[in-house]
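[agent] plan:
  1. take the single chain provided in the ticket
  2. run structure prediction with default settings
  3. attach structure tokens to the ticket
  4. add a short note for the reviewer (M.T.)
[agent] executing step 1
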Amino acid sequence: MAETAYRIQKTDAEWRRLLTPEQYRVLRQEGTERAFTPGNYNDEKRKGDYACAGCGTVLWRSAEKFDSGTGWPSFWAPVDKRVVGTKVDRKLFMTRIEVHCAVCGGHQGHVFEDGPPPTGLRYCINGAALKFIPR
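[agent] step 2 finished; step 3 output follows
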């Protein structure tokens, strides 16, 4: 992960203690969980907020969540554009736009331009990067 001055910074050892092995792999090593992973919030229908599993910052809301059919939780917009950051990702022999938490730098997933109105965006997010807070 690129070195950036995020508001919340921890050593690698601190992240490993704080996160589960799967959360660490996704959030800190920019991994991707398998589609339709049980418990990844893809099928979550309750109203609530989705926070970064690394730092607890609310990034997504159920009001902007939609069923993309991809097997990952998908949103057409973040809570606020300032809480997520993006960068070009050229891994896996393709160019994509990676999405991360702007507070701690934790990898969330990718954003694509094939989403629903009003933004036309699909933020395809790893459930392991999230913590659901029901309302």
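[agent] step 4 note for reviewer: Helices lie at 12-18, 21-27.
[agent] ticket updated
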